[in-house]
Amino acid sequence: SFAYFTIKDRLPQILTRVIDTLHRHKNEFFEEHGEKGVEAEKRAISFLSKLRNELQTDKPVTPLEDELPDAALWNQYLDYQRNLSNGNGEPSWFQSPWLFVECYMYRRIHAALAQNPPIDNFDVFKEGKAQNFFESQEAVIALCTYFQELLKNIKDLDEKQLKEELFKLLQVSLWGNKCDLSFSAGEDSSQKSSPLQSLENLVPYILVNDMEQLWSLLVNAKKNRTERSNVRVDIILDNAGFELVSDLVLADFLLSSKLADEVYFHGKSIPWYVSDTTKHDFNWTLKQLQSANHMWMSRCGINWEGNLKKGVWVFCDHMFWTLPHDFSNMAAVAPDLYAELQKSNLIFFKGDLNYRKLTGDRKWEYSVPFHQALNKFHPAPLCSLRTLKSDTQVGLKPGQGEQIQASEPEWMVSGKYGVVQFDAGL
């Protein structure tokens, strides 16, 4: 299965890159922290080499031994997996659900650093994320320029034009999800060309397209808002780099067009899946934009910093996003986060990992309704913006998946297809 090749080939590759990254920074650790830094680097590398060996030789998945805040929740989840195996021995790397062991690997990478001060705050994926951002410069410039030009006349646009612009920026945010470093095992996956030029050609590859429903939801929320009630949109972020910029443009458009009054961004509290957005990545991106020597890029950065200061944009992270649980467990495991999302008028879930957690990463029939696969996870109306990079997909028309499968066996994992898939909730 695709899961098997991911665990067998892609994950060890990612671990090897992490180990190489630490090696390369050895001198920097020495300059900053002296011998202590070098000792910490050695310990982290030995921890990671052991982890790589466990993975490649299909050893049992062992409980976490660190004292980090989420360790108890992880170990409870391990017990749950152990009970699922019906006495068929300990869950091991190749005999466990893919989503669980993949999350577990990233959590162990985090532990390798967190347990080894003074390098405990080092993000082993930071360089790759920065490189992705710089290599996507042309696309970022094209998008920022387009958007700043659009803002000049946004007040004069009628409903039809606003709707067209919303659909455009939703698609840019959708296809921005192709820039995923965990999928390419850290190889270059930047967005080189202007994303706006290819949108027309990509429409046939959107397998579920619920943009009309999003439009009516936002327009109705705007009409029904009262003095006291703000229209709130939440974006559960995925990758840093170009994808994050495309999400920020979408968020700014929602505010500028008065379709929303506030946008909450949800990122990861620890480095995750190579290129996922942390608070540091979020702030770093705004700083890079502000200081860019391109007028419209820097205008975007300055405006967005302003949105944060005014409180109309809020960045939050929560450890639930880096647990192995399906989202249908959120109300039980992280009731505070679930309650927070219930305040939203619309939640966007970006990317493939979020889709897998929304649908429990099961091998559903393609035509099972999205609402059913969500397994009672309905904090608010929600929409998945996702390009397909793993073999879980629901909500297709009867025969649609089988038809593509016949001519393109790799359709579910190539990133070529996408969905804008909406669920109104209860």
Automatic annotation (TrEMBL):
One of its GO terms (biological process) is methylation. It catalyses: L-glutamyl-[protein] + S-adenosyl-L-methionine = [protein]-L-glutamate 5-O-methyl ester + S-adenosyl-L-homocysteine; beta-D-fructose 1-phosphate + H2O = D-fructose + phosphate; beta-D-fructose 6-phosphate = dihydroxyacetone + D-glyceraldehyde 3-phosphate. GO terms for cellular component: nucleus. The keyword Metal-binding applies. Keywords: Hydrolase, Manganese, Metal-binding, Methyltransferase, Nickel, S-adenosyl-L-methionine, Transferase. Pfam families: ARMT1-like_dom. The keyword Ribosomal protein does not apply. Its cofactor is Mn(2+); Ni(2+). Residues 6-404 form the Damage-control phosphatase ARMT1-like metal-binding domain. Its EC number is 2.1.1.-, 3.1.3.-. GO terms for molecular function: metal ion binding; phosphatase activity; protein carboxyl O-methyltransferase activity. Belongs to the damage-control phosphatase family. Sugar phosphate phosphatase III subfamily. Subfamily III proteins have a conserved RTxK motif about 40-50 residues from the C-terminus; the threonine may be replaced by serine or cysteine. Metal-dependent phosphatase that shows phosphatase activity against several substrates, including fructose-1-phosphate and fructose-6-phosphate. Its preference for fructose-1-phosphate, a strong glycating agent that causes DNA damage rather than a canonical yeast metabolite, suggests a damage-control function in hexose phosphate metabolism. Has also been shown to have O-methyltransferase activity that methylates glutamate residues of target proteins to form gamma-glutamyl methyl ester residues. Possibly methylates PCNA, suggesting it is involved in the DNA damage response. This is Sugar phosphate phosphatase. The gene is Armt1.
